């Protein structure tokens, strides 16, 4: 099964962190040999800043040192290859950006009422709030709709067909559109527990996926003005709180890990600025007690100074 760009990026990122940790625990430099008369003398040499350090090893270099230096060279070669792969992925993602923006613009200009969420959400708040966030955009473009939907009737299939998208259906009956590169999906807040089937959005002639805790994302939305069009995204603090809550319900460990990493990254930036910090903490006080408790436990674990 072909991995998505996101899965590839996360894999290479984890490998890069692992290799960097291993490299940092291995000796630097190389082993040199000098022959004086009939005798061989070995030296361990490495750089510290502009200086070259030398350690005399004797007539026979330690075998474990030779192995560790060779392992470091192998890992440094792997690191170079991983960085090249990451560069290729980022370039591919940047190529996708224009098309994704065009889809968002098309929906906004046709008065489709939505919140942009998913992987294309993070670059937007990074831009608006000047957050230092790692962002990776996948082939999935996710739109959150209110349910019931009271917006203007629009035939989304008819709207997307001229730009190369065809309609498809998942096993649960939900609708998606794809052009072979992108997959456009629609989500709605789950109304009641245990709803597994897709919900009909008749004005748009689609069926959307119901998910828990989505309703909270409509609170305090941020308007993004692009001049020719505008759209809304969730506020970063509510989005982070949502990630904390949804992570508790994940059955897939990798998705749970992704939720936690995103929540931590966003909250770290929020808490750097007094204004956004106060907005986040004020918002937290308005949430239901059960949600508030779960979020406070998360904050106590990952941001103890804030939780106090």
UniProtKB/TrEMBL annotation:
<dbReference type="Pfam" id="PF20586">
    <property type="entry name" value="DUF6788"/>
</dbReference>
<dbReference type="InterPro" id="IPR046738">
    <property type="entry name" value="DUF6788"/>
</dbReference>
<feature type="domain" description="DUF6788">
    <location>
        <begin position="18"/>
        <end position="58"/>
    </location>
</feature>
<dbReference type="InterPro" id="IPR058575">
    <property type="entry name" value="NTP_transf_8_dom"/>
</dbReference>
<feature type="domain" description="Nucleotidyltransferase-like">
    <location>
        <begin position="113"/>
        <end position="269"/>
    </location>
</feature>
<dbReference type="Pfam" id="PF12281">
    <property type="entry name" value="NTP_transf_8"/>
</dbReference>
<protein>
    <recommendedName>
        <fullName>Nucleotidyltransferase</fullName>
    </recommendedName>
</protein>
């Amino acid at each position: 099964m072909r991995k998505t760009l996101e899965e590839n990026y996360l894999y290479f990122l984890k490998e890069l962190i692992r290799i960097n940790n291993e490299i940092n625990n291995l000796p630097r430099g190389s082993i040199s040999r000098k022959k004086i008369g009939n005798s061989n003398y070995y030296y361990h040499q490495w750089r510290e800043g502009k200086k070259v350090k030398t350690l005399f090893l004797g007539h026979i270099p330690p075998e474990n040192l030779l192995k560790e230096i060779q392992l470091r060279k192998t890992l440094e070669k792997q690191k170079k290859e991983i960085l090249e792969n990451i560069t290729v992925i980022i370039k591919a993602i940047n190529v996708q950006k224009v098309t994704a923006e065009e889809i968002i613009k098309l929906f906004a200009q046709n008065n489709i009422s939505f919140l942009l969420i998913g992987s294309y959400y993070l670059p937007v708040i990074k831009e608006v709030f000047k957050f230092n966030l790692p962002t990776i955009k996948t082939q999935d473009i996710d739109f959150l709709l209110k349910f019931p939907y009271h917006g203007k009737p629009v035939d989304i299939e008819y709207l997307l067909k001229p730009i190369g998208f065809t309609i498809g259906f998942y096993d649960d009956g939900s609708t998606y559109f794809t052009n072979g590169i992108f997959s456009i999906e629609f989500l709605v807040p789950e109304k009641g527990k245990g709803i597994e089937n897709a919900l009909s959005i008749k004005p748009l002639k689609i069926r959307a996926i119901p998910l828990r805790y989505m309703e909270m994302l409509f609170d305090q939305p941020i308007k993004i003005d692009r001049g020719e069009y505008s759209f809304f995204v969730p506020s970063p603090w509510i989005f982070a709180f949502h990630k904390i809550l949804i992570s508790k319900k994940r059955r897939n460990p990798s998705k749970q890990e992704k939720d936690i990493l995103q929540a931590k990254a966003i909250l770290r930036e929020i808490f750097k600025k007094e204004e956004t910090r106060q907005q986040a903490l004020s918002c937290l006080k308005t949430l239901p007690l059960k949600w508030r408790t779960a979020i406070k436990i998360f904050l106590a674990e990952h941001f103890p100074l804030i939780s106090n």
